[in-house]
Design a protein that fits this description.
Strand content: 25-35%
Structural class: alpha+beta
Number of helices: 4
Oligomer: single chain
CATH topology: Aminopeptidase
Largest sheet: 5 strands, mixed
Helix content: 25-40%
Number of domains: 1
Low-confidence stretches: none
Mean pLDDT: 88
Number of strands: 5
Distance between the termini: 42 Å
Strand order of the largest sheet: 1-2-3-4-5
Length: 140
């Protein structure tokens, strides 16, 4: 199966900051919005401010995709958010955001993410390997 080409006008960039408002807009246009505090802009702002790497995909200046990662730039990268506006999904934008995030964080790092339930089949399709041993403490 071939991946459809992304719209020709997608512009990717590593950006030092995005506004909480535009981040929330793109989250709400994905299933990820159901699991992020989109009704708490101050918390979203902290999530953005404390991220090490933000990679964006924009069409005509409008945010249509974003990855947010935490990294030490030498061993591990946690891709905490990968969001692509549902209107733009299926065109390779998510795959390109992951590729650019990994490149920005360092290819010697292991990129790790927790898949949203609706995206579990996407990741093996683009070459990520599943790890069966993940442990966590829930949020309070």
């Amino acid at each position: 199966m071939t991946t459809p080409s992304p719209p020709a006008d997608v512009v990717y960039a590593v950006e030092p900051h995005v506004s909480p408002a535009e981040y929330i807009v793109v989250l709400r246009k994905t299933t990820l919005g159901e699991r992020r505090p989109v009704d708490d802009p101050a918390r979203i702002a902290r999530m953005i401010d404390e991220a090490d790497v933000l990679v964006t995909a924009r069409v005509d200046g409008r945010l249509v995709g974003i990855s947010r990662a935490l990294t030490d730039y030498s061993f591990a990268t946690y891709l905490s958010d990968l969001a692509v506006d549902e209107q733009y999904q299926g065109h390779g934008i998510g795959r390109e955001l992951i590729r650019r995030t990994h490149a920005a964080c360092g290819k010697e790092t292991m990129l790790v993410l927790i898949a949203a339930p609706q995206a579990e089949t996407f990741y093996p399709h683009i070459g990520l390997q599943q790890h069966m041993s993940c442990w966590f403490l829930p949020r309070e």
